Structure formats: structure tokens, C-alpha cells
Amino acid sequence: MSHAVADTDAASLRGQALLDHIATDFLGLDTTYPLATGEVTRRVYLDSTASTLMMGAAHRAMSAFLEHYANTHSLMHNSARLATQAYGWAHDRILRFVGADPDAYTCFFTGSGVTAGMNRLARVFRDLRPGKDTVLVSIMEHHSNDLPHRKHLGRVIHLPVDSRPEGHGCVDLAAMEQVLKREQGRVNYVAITGVSNVTGIINPIGQIARLAHEYGALVLIDGAQMVAHLPVQMSGHSDPREDLDALVFSGHKTYVPGSPGVVIARQEHLAAIEPEEVGGGMVERVFTERYTVSSKFPDREEAGTPNIPGAIGLAAAIEVLDRIGMDILVAEERQLIDYAIERLKVIPELNIYGSTDTQDCPRAASISFNVAGLDHSLVAAVLNDYHNIAVRNECFCAHPYVIEMISDQAAEYLAMSDAELAASCEPKPGMVRASFGLYNTRKDVDLLVAAIRDIVTNRERYLPLYALGPDREYHHTTFESVSKEAFSIPRWVDEALREYGGQSPDR
Hints:
Number of helices: 17
Largest sheet: 7 strands, mixed
């Protein structure tokens, strides 16, 4: 065995051992709730595509930093110096994690996950290339990678996904090229998700970037569902056309709830126009009649006081992921997804959306489905109330894509006007989505499969126990699974004040 192979094997063993430890070190893995049966059981968290649980190591890193907390942009006292250095390290760490050349790209943090970053970049690219008014997005996009482009550029063309015998696949590259040819000279940029938040299907972003650049378009990738699950290489490809212009992702989907969104973009694009947001920290000099914008990245893109603890927590989580090794994480998750699909596919009443051939059409993190003859809301409610399994339902902020896949169920919904829809008392169309993080196991999948089989077998028992509420969702008629006593801010404040004799006001 060569030294190189031996070193690789040793690194893999270390990474696997670290993963085995980290997978059990998340806040909320032991959370319990009562069931409608009266039993109290552990929650099975299968809603990571919406938001992941908090990584224990990242949480402890944030807590340790708060012992030294101060604002950044000063080196004149110890805490400010530590904060400035740690915050700068967070930017650098993220650039390395996504394979972005630090001389060509910058990383900066934004407020509300991907949404803030997408709105920001839509305005940047609009002003950078004012003669180009069109954006290409896929039909599978989350609203945060669709609506900002509609608002700020106005003309959005939705690309189809390819059709396969097992269901919808990834973005249709042939159709994309046809549109790029037809609209050549008018397309400002292509904005595509790396991974669908509905099906988990992975898009070939290298091929997408190469095609877009061949026709003079920029490339913006929504990495919300990708960065925590797949390795990313933004620059340094053998074919430079595969290098990305910008990528946006969310800290709260990368194992650090409460952390900011992240934008990684080419410096040359940002330097060509004045920053979208102005205020403290992004200027060099300010006079009553003028001001000079800083030329330094990322300062010029981060006006105001940033979410310093959140950024540090996110960078700590990314450090952990890198130490495990993204190749190891990919292999582990692929095995779990394949296991889940194979176990779910054999339930005749279950319809899984998107191609289930994961060799031909790889997935990450998510599986969406419906149970024949049962509303998605009812299925999600029973999973929660009787099995303590947390899943998400409805359209997952990807309405056009979901409606396209369930068009046979949504015909009446599509025919309704906005006024008719507002007055409707019928259930909303949608699906159920189970999604996974690195803390999920085959046991979690087995519990989900057993729960679905129970729902299918005992549907006649469950149906009378639920009624459609004013929110057009199904709710148990006699059982409320979680009261305010499970978590109450005033109660926690009471306990904190009680430690030093504080009095609580009457309520």
C-alpha cells in the first residue's frame, strides 16, 4: 500500500469516527412530546430541509465567543480585536469551504437566509448589466430564487425539468440551451438551485454554468440545500466556464439556526457599482456633502453591525463539516436516502415525487410523497400526533413546481380566482416532505415507514378524529400535542429571575 493510499484511508477513518460522534451532538435530539395515546416519546426530526437542528460544537463555539463579545472594526481593546479577528476568519473559512479563490471572490453575510442575498444580487446584476433584462430560473425553484428576480428585473423565464420514467429529474439542459440561443444578448444571468428543496434532486451546476457562460450570461446558484450536503467548488475548474459568478446559502440550513445568510460573489462584479446598502462600516470618509465607499472587501458589502456570533457559529459548523470530509458526508447521506426510497417504494399507496432512480438522478436530503386518498395535511398531523415524527407539508415555498407535479389533484385550485381561493374552505393542494440531516439514522427511516404503514392500515380509525380548521389544515378534534408550557418565554424569564430573587409581574 502506498503512503498516499494509507494516508487517505487513515483520514477516512478519522472522518468517519468524527461523524459518528458529531451526529449525536445536536441540540434537540432528545426532545420529547406527548402523543394522542398518552405516551411520551422522543421526537423524530425529519424537517431539516426547512431548518436543521443546532450542531452542539457550533453552539459551544458561539457561547465561548460571547464571553469575549464586542463589536468589530477595532483593534484597540482586547475584545474588539478578538471579535474582528474571529469575524474575519469566518469569511475566509467559508471561501475555502466553497472553493472560491479569495483573490477573485468575496464572502459577506446577509440578514434572512438566502432570501436577502438573492434580492441583493438581483439588484446588483440589474445595475451591473442594465441592457439585459431577463433571468432564467428553473420551474423547481424555491420562491426566494424566483420572486426577487421577477421584482428587480421583471422578465423571468422558467426552464422545465427533464422527464424520466420514474418522475421529474433535474433541470432540462437541452431546453436551457434553446432558451439561451433564442434570448441571446438579453439574458442577464441564470439562477438555479443546486438541490431541489422539494425532491432533493441534484442539478449539474458545472454544466449549467458552462452553458450560461457560453451565451454571455452570469450564473447565480441557490446553495441553500446544497452546501451542507455536497462539496462545492466555485472556482479553479479545468474549464473556467464552469466557475460560478455567485452562490448564496443559509446558515440555518447548515446546522446553525440563528446564523445569517451568506453571499459569495466575484469581487469584480461588486466593485463595478456602489454597494446596495450603505451605512456604518462600508465607508472610508464621510462629509456632509459626500462620502467615499470603502474599496475593501467584505467591508464595503456589510453596512451596519453584523450578526457576529451567528457568523462565527456558522464558520465553526463548516470547520466541523470539513474536518469530517464532505465525501464521507455524501456517502453516508446517499446510503440513507437510498435506504429510505427503497423502503418507501414498496408501500403501494405511496406516491414518491421526482425520479427514484438515484443512480441516474442523484438526490440529497429530501423525499416528498403523498398517500393515496389522504390529504397531505392529515398525514402530517397523524405522523406528529401519533408517532412524534416531524415532517413538513403543503408546497414548501415552491408552488409552481409542486402544482406541476400534482396537477391532477390541483385542477380545481388552478381554476380558482384569487377571491375564490380566499373564500374556499377546501384543503390546500400539497405534499408531505421528509428531509434528513447528518444526525438522522436508518432507525428514523424505519419509524417513518412503520408510521406510514400504520396510517394506511388504520385510515378509517384516524379519519373521524380530525377536522379541517380555518387554516385549511387538518387538526385533531380532542388532542393538542404541545401546550405553551412546553416552551414559554415568560416562564424561562421567571426561572432566570428566580435565581437572583427577581420578581415577576402579575400576568
